[in-house]
Structures are given as structure tokens and as C-alpha cells.
Amino acid sequence: MKLELKNLYDDFRDADTIKAFAKIIKEDAKKLKNPINIMEVCGGHTHTIMKYGIPQLLPSNVKFVHGPGCPVCIMPKDRIDHAYVLSQQEDAILVTLGDMIKVPGSNGSLQDARAKGADVRFVYSPMDCIKIAKENPDKKVIFFAIGFETTTPMTAALLDAVIKKGIKNIYFHINHVTVPEAMVALISDNKAKIDAFLGPSHVSVISGSKIYEEFPRDFNKPVVVSGFEPVDVMQSISMIVKQFIENRCELEIEYKRAVNRDGNLKAQKLIDTYFQKAQNFAWRGLGNIPGSGLKLRDEFREFNAEDIYRDILPKDKIDDHKLCICGDILKGIANPPECTIFGTACKPTTPVGSCMVSSEGACAAYYKYGNLI
Amino acid sequence: MNKTVSLACGNGGEENNELISKVFYKAFKNEILEKSEDAAIIHNGELAFSTDSFTVSPLFFPGADIGKLAVCGTCNDLAMMGAQPKYLTCSVIIEEGFAIRELEKIVRSMKKELEVNGAVVVSGDTKVVPRGSVDKIFINTTGIGEVLKKGISSNNISADDVIIVNRDIGCHGATIFAAREGIEMSSSLESDCASLFPQVKALLDADINITAMRDATRGGVSAVLNEWAKQSNICVEVEEELIPVSDEVSGICEMLGFEATALANEGTFVLAVKKEDANKTVEILKSFTNSSRATVIGKVSDIHLQKVVLNSSWGTKRFLDTPSGELLPRIC
Q1: Distance (Å) from the C-alpha of residue B1 to the closest C-alpha of chain A?
Q2: Which helix (H) or strand (E) holds B123?
Q3: Does residue A7 form part of some domain?
Q4: Contact across the interface for A22 and B2, Cβ inside 8 Å
Q5: ipTM
Q6: Which domain range does residue A241 map to?
Q7: What is the dihedral of CA B30, B34, B35, B40, to 10 degrees?
Q8: By the CB < 8 Å criterion, does A128 face chain B?
């Protein structure tokens, strides 16, 4: 038999399976004592949920709270301003991932910087920086590294290669953040209405399911580590509903095809070699979350663009827009359409708040796909 | 609107529309232009007139090259108005250092494609610019066609029409992305680039009651359907599972984070035809090799005016919006 790409996802988008899970969830949900709010932490899940219209398949007592897990959305403006300033350096090529280049900072987006003549490129793999650096030996390639546990190993692997190959013209501006700290910050707010979590499977492919053990144990919140296809999400919701009706509170893995407790130890070691915890990272929409960011270890200072360019990088912190209610949306207190600037001043082409920034943000997903019943 | 033009302004989607309406329509405003059809209908409705510029990179790609594209693009715009392509102009801007052999290859493909359309190039212009001023070669073609059937317009679609596509979508966009990103696949994926006039002619000869046609170039099928929803003040309801997408195109979309409906096509068109002619239309289209997967994909309703609604096979609904931004991959 020939293995094709579609074999990896076809069955996980099967209409009959999705409908069967919808039926099971509806039946089980009748036994729920109280309505439940499930937070999907990751923007990839938000995208799946809105794209496949999953809320339309759920009973009224099972609801989603769309979480903060989109690395592009949570990037504060002052960090984007760093990238903008770096891109303006005459001998610099600024490299980053995907839709990071369209997010506006105070002076505009990286796309705008490129239109004005800056050399800004996006890559699918950070390793592409090596090719760019070799083709441009007289330029400084600055990799604006973003993302959660999923992309951190790629940045670490790039730095590893840069050191081993003795490449002299690649630098790093690190904006990596970690998921569990943000989840703790969210549920520590008393107003937050989150009863259970859908954990992103790709994070756990790297970090294992163990990173979520504290949630059922210390916070009484069930977690199901879920894949990204609609069947995965439906099965995970069903697992969460069953935990509630059976009075269980556990960490379960739905995405058993690639996740175990310990994760990818080699990747974890690579991250640990090059990164250490940063004291703070100011998440757009949520503010400072202690211990949620990573930075390069001191011994790799010579690769740290933030250090090398510290004299020219803006230092001011930029507060979120006053009218934006992304913080409340992320805590499950409000829905995107309740925001006064939703769809008017704040649109995907001119995002004000974090949730409108990329298609993985809750507001952008509502705007793009509608919330049709 | 931004102070500078960004790449997103050329995406065939939202930013593109904004640039056109706020800069060009504002200055050139007239009744014909404002109809926003694929080709302008002039001279008492007897002639169709259209222009297009071609800047594709790479110049040669699986299924076609910039030359074939330059003829198909303009001729298709004429064909979409029910016109037979007749006379074309051809302007080229060439970068210093460009190989004559490649130029000859491009011109040969243009000639071949002109024959398919029964059209001729009757005027041209050649400019050579210093290295770096253009990327190898840019081609502009402008064409005049003779309208065979009057009254085809994107402004008159109603609930009496059904929506049809002639083939599987997104092949051109996926081919170009795969070529640019250096993705090598064990597949037969190639651009759908083709002249559509023969198919249009067959439909007209069979007296099919065509309300509107549009080739789904930049912005893909979703841009066409959204333009129609707005221009005709209707809701287009599409059944997602009916939209033909090849495995290769789905695969590229999976890997790069795109939607097939937003990918560009160069030989794919969307039709609005009267319900009673739907089966006959599909049958005629299917007799062409390129269009063996022609099918009805949706209908016209009034549930969300000026919007396109996608119905899933498990009973949910969502909007299919106009693509916006540069086509960028989602990062996770």
C-alpha cells in the first residue's frame, strides 16, 4: 500500500464520526450538574473549532473559552517594535516565521518595513537561516524567534548548528514562551470561568503530557491532550464531559498516536542546553506572566541580538489598547462580539488587540468564519 | 489605507480591492469601469476589452510558462463575458541579460495558445531595462473580443441560478508555491493554465442560459464567490464536500497552511447558470479533458446577503470570506 499525506488526516475529518461524537456528547451532557467551559489553550485548536463549526455541534451547557495560545497574537507591541528597529539596520536581514510579518507594532508591521526597503523574510524552518546567511556573508541575519514549546527546539537546533558550523553572521532575538505558566495565570484570576482544558498535542509531543499534571492535582481542572483534527477535538470534548459526569478529574491523552508522559527527551535536552527561564514575559492581552518566557543562556550572549543591539532597541513598554477586552475574552468572561470595537475599529486588516491578530486568535476566527448556527 | 503599497495590495483580495477602489476607481470613475466585470463591454455591447500583466516567478513551471499564462489570462477574461478573443497586443519589459532562447520559448507558447483561441497579436511594444529593474521579464497583454452572447454579468445572479465550477481548484497556486518553496513531490501536480474559450463556446452553442462566469485567478474561488455575493446582493451557499480539490493540492494546503479556495487558478472558472440548465452545463464541461471534474457546488439564497456560506457535511455552517493579507502560512 502506498502511504499518502491524506492518510494522515482523512479519517480524522470523517463526517459520520464527527456526528457520532456529537450525539454521544449531547447524551452525556444531559447528566451534567452544571454547565462547563472548556478552554482550548492553543490557537491551532481555536482555528479547528471555528473552521469546522464545532460549537454548533455542542449542547448549550458545553462551551468553549478560546485561550491565549497563538504565539503571533500574544506578541506585545514593544517586541514587534524591536523587530522593526532591527530590520532597519543597514546590514541586517530580519527573518521570522509566517504571519508574524503582518502584525502591526507602533511604527507598522514588518511587512510595512519590507515595503519601505528593509530586508524582511519569512521561512518555514528556522534552519533556512543558514542558507540565507551563506548567501549573504556581508549581512547580519537576525532570527526573530517566536513560538511555544513546539518551535523552541527548532531555534535551539539552529543555534546548535550555527555554533557547530562556526557561522558568524546569525543572531537571535528570542520570544519563546511556555504554555503551563499562562494557564496558571488564567485560572488564578477569580473571575475566570474555566472548568477544564484542552491541551495542544504538538506541545506535548515535545514536552510530554507531564507538564499538565499540576492542573488536575493542584487546581482541580481536568486536562485532555488533544490532536488538531475535528474528530480529535470532538473525542477530547467527549472525554472531558465523561470526566465530569463520572466525577473524575484527571490528565488524559486523546492524541495517543504521538504523545506520551515524557515527550521528546532529546528536544528537551537541546532546549535546556541553550535556553533558560526569563523572569518575565509580557503577553499581549494578559500582561506579565512570571516564568513564562525563555531567553538564551548567558554563555551564548554573543548570539543574542537583544544584547548586541541593546542601545538602539526601544525600551518602553506599550500598554494594550484601553477599549480592547482580549484579557476578558481569554479568561472566558466575555465573547468577541461583546467588545465595542470588534469588527469596527478592530479588524484582521487593522487589529487592535491580540485576539484579532492572526487567524488563530478568537476574535479573528469569529470575524473570519462567523459564529453561525 | 496604508501610506505605502504592500505586497498584500496585490493579493486579489481585500487590500487589493481597497487599493483599486480608493486610488484607481476614484480617478478613472466611469459607468463601464464601475461594473467591475472581467472585461469591459463596449461599443454597444458588441465588444469585450480587457488587459492583464504577468509577473509570475518562476517563469517556467509545471503545466505552463509566463507566455501561455499571458495569452490565457487576457483571452479568458474576454471569454468570461461571452466573447470570442480576436485581437491582442503584447508588451514586454525585459531585464538586461535575459537569454534570447528563453524569450523564444516564451513567445512560442504564446503563439500556440493564440491558435487555441483563434486570436492574433496585432500590436506590441518591447522595453529593455537595466539589471534589477524588473525580475527577468514582465508581459502585458490587452485583448479585444467579439461578444457572442450579450447580457452576461456578475451583477444579475439570482436564486434561479446554481453555482458550478469546471474542475478541481487551486492547482496553479499550489504549483507555484511548491516551485517557490522547493517542495519536491512524487506527484503529477501541475498548473491548470488553459484557455477557456473552447469550453465557453461549447456552452453558448448549446444555448445554455448563462447568467455569469468568472475565472478564479488571484484570490481563488472564494474571491469570485464573494465578489458575486456583493455585486448581485445575494448569499452564495456552497457545499464544502462538493468543491473538487485534488489530493496533491490538499496536501500542499496541509503542509503550508492554506485553503484551496484561496489559491489562484489560471484555467478554472465559476459559472452561475439557470437551474434547469445545470445538468446540461456539467455534461458539456465534462466532455473537455481539463474539466472532467466539473460539478455543481452550491446555490443562491438570502440567508446572509453579500456573504458566502460554506456548509459542512456534518451540518455546520461558516463564512467563506475574501482572502486577505499576503498568502502567508500559519505558523502552527
Answers
A1: 10
A2: strand B120-129
A3: no
A4: no
A5: 0.78
A6: 68-321
A7: 60
A8: no
